[in-house]
Amino acid sequence: MTDEHSHLPAEPGNDDASAPDTSLVPDEPIVNPGLPEHAWRPTDVDPKAERRAERQVATLFGLSAVCAVLFVVSYLVFDVNGGGDGETVQTVFGLGASNVALGVSLGLALMFIGIGLIQWARKLMGDHEIVEMRHPARSSDEDRTETVRVLNLGAEESGIARRPLVRNSLLLSVGVLLAPVVVLLKDLGKTNAEVIDEAAYPGAGLEHTVWTSGMRVVRDVVGTPIRPGDLEIGDLINAEPEIIFEVDEDGEHVLEGVHLQIAKSKAAVVLIRMDPDENKPAKGREDWAVDGILCYSKICTHVGCPISLNERKTHHLLCPCHQSTFDLADAAKVVFGPAARPLPQLPLMVNDEGYLVAQSDFKEPVGPSYWERDSQQSTSK
């Protein structure tokens, strides 16, 4: 960067504005880089235009704050699930009203902040041309000192200290934009008793799934039950529980709609068959396999990605998201990647009809870690 910024244009009214002073930078290879004559903006020379630009920027920041508030209102007003108790799902132009309102309000909030920042930079921040010479590797101490000076100069030229209207409106819009983040925390954990009540439906909550003793393991999508003879050594298939649409005393289905999809997604598993001699079961799991057939949760313990990339020779299962690798022949222990826990294993047995069924639910919570998982594991043993 050139010393002292001697090439910066002079203030309005200086006749030498188009002829930068290069007397302090005699060592530069290019004395005159060919900059055109500086054209001053209306906001540089007209105080009224400057104040008008300030009001425009503040208005944009204010609109951003309004949209952030609308996001919070939309989250509270519209039913994010819809149709849970026979109600008709609210729609806008054929789309879910909740999604439309949340997306539009948050998008506009971010857009207005972006436009406001652009207008601030274009109309109110310092406007002059700078030539920066390239330097090899590390800059000299003098250049580093100059860089700090220029950064401080940039902060001063931005006018954030002497433009309280722009500064305060920006702080307001950014502050209010944090409200949607706080509101969305409502969807984490057990904060809505009507949706995540342990007694609401089978397998609800973070600690359990819909698997129960005697529930058949069926192929994913097609739903056909599986016999041990259907799998050869090295095979891996995606599976799920056979959820029977039981009817309660009021004649209503126990699992349907959103609850059914949640139950199936949490209970998704993979079945793999290997030579029984290659399996090294964990302590207490010696009878969890059937003729070398093992069943593990399909949900990665890192961030919950669906996982089913199988290395037949090594029995390693790879997660496609972040390459966490689990050794299915060794209790699904992590052998590579960011996952911190093995995949939960589902204990298997064969029923009277010769089909693979679960002995029980998983003995530990499935999916990624969360704040109470360790305590839940300790109490379940």
List the helices and strands and how they pair.
Blueprint: H1 42-45, H2 47-77, E1 91-92, E2 95-96, H3 97-123, H4 141-157, H5 164-184, H6 193-196, E3 217-219, E4 236-241, H7 257-266, E5 269-273, E6 293-297, E7 309-311, E8 316-318, E9 325-327, E10 333-336, E11 348-350, E12 356-358, H8 373-380
Helix pairs in contact: 2-3, 2-5, 3-5
Describe the structure.
With 381 residues, the chain is α+β, with helices and mostly antiparallel strands. The chain has two domains: 3-187, no CATH class; 194-380, Rieske [2Fe-2S] iron-sulphur domain (Rieske Iron-sulfur Protein, 3-layer Sandwich), CATH 2.102.10.10. It has helices spanning 42-45, 47-77, 97-123, 141-157, 164-184, 193-196, 257-266, 373-380, and strands spanning 91-92, 95-96, 217-219, 236-241, 269-273, 293-297, 309-311, 316-318, 325-327, 333-336, 348-350, 356-358. The strands form four sheets. The chain has a four-stranded antiparallel β-sheet with strand order 3-4-5-6, with helices on one face. β9 and β10 form a beta hairpin. The radius of gyration is 32 Å and the shape is elongated. Residues 1-11, 13-20, 22-26, 191-198 and 375-381 have low confidence and may be disordered.
